[in-house]
Write a structure and sequence with these properties.
23% helix, binds zinc ion, 7-stranded mixed β-sheet, alpha/beta
């Protein structure tokens, strides 16, 4: 199976190397998931949110799932849901090979919001894997690593649900970034979202 995914980080205030993305975490206790997808994707998104919550450790935020109603990505204001994850669909992504796109907005190493864009044309058999893959990006800031392919992962491997690799990654990430001290959120002014990062293939 060929799975391509775009990950784009818009670093606010401190534009720096893409490696920053790997250290960016959510610091809020709960993160809303705002589902604007079509009926074809909605059950997959809802199930994936439950699965991701199940592997997130106590120090990580919980995801709260809300159905908003079908609205294409290009009709959703990017400023909406600043502390959450917006999931929406588009007729197609830039490359027909690309099955999902996750855009991060990061401030001072903290994820402030995420948008997951899913193409309508995706093969139904791949939807579980694609949504799990994108949600691992969204929940942990993990980058793509198409060469690794552990068979216990939906983000670096081909699983259709989170595996032990994914659980371990989340546990380690949020252990190293203890949020109990309460990080500052949304301080300062924003720059115009310089984009970098990019698309990787395998
Ligand atoms: Zn990806």
């Amino acid at each position: 199976m060929r799975l391509l995914c775009g990950v784009v980080a818009a670093l606010v205030l401190l534009a720096s190397a893409p490696t920053v993305l790997a250290r960016a975490v959510w610091t809020t206790n709960s993160v809303g998931v705002y589902d604007y997808t079509s009926a074809a994707w909605r059950p997959v998104v809802a199930a994936t949110v439950e699965e991701i919550n199940a592997i997130l450790p106590a120090k990580a935020p919980s995801l709260f799932y809300r159905v908003i109603g079908e609205t294409p990505c290009d009709q959703i204001d990017p400023q909406l849901h600043r502390d959450g994850i917006v999931v929406c669909t588009t007729p197609a992504l830039a490359s027909a090979d690309e099955l999902g796109l996750t855009e991060f907005f990061v401030e001072r190493g903290q994820i402030s919001r995420v948008r997951i864009t899913l193409p309508e044309a995706t093969n139904p058999g791949l939807r579980d894997n694609v949504v799990c893959h994108e949600f691992m990006h969204a929940a942990t800031g993990i980058e793509d690593n198409y060469g690794a392919r552990p068979d216990t992962s939906c983000v670096w491997g081909d699983l259709s649900a989170p595996g032990s690799f994914d659980a371990q990654y989340a546990r380690k990430l949020y252990k190293d970034n203890d949020t109990s001290s309460g990080g500052k959120k949304h301080g300062g002014k924003r720059h115009g979202g310089k984009k970098h990062g990019g698309r990787h293939g395998r």
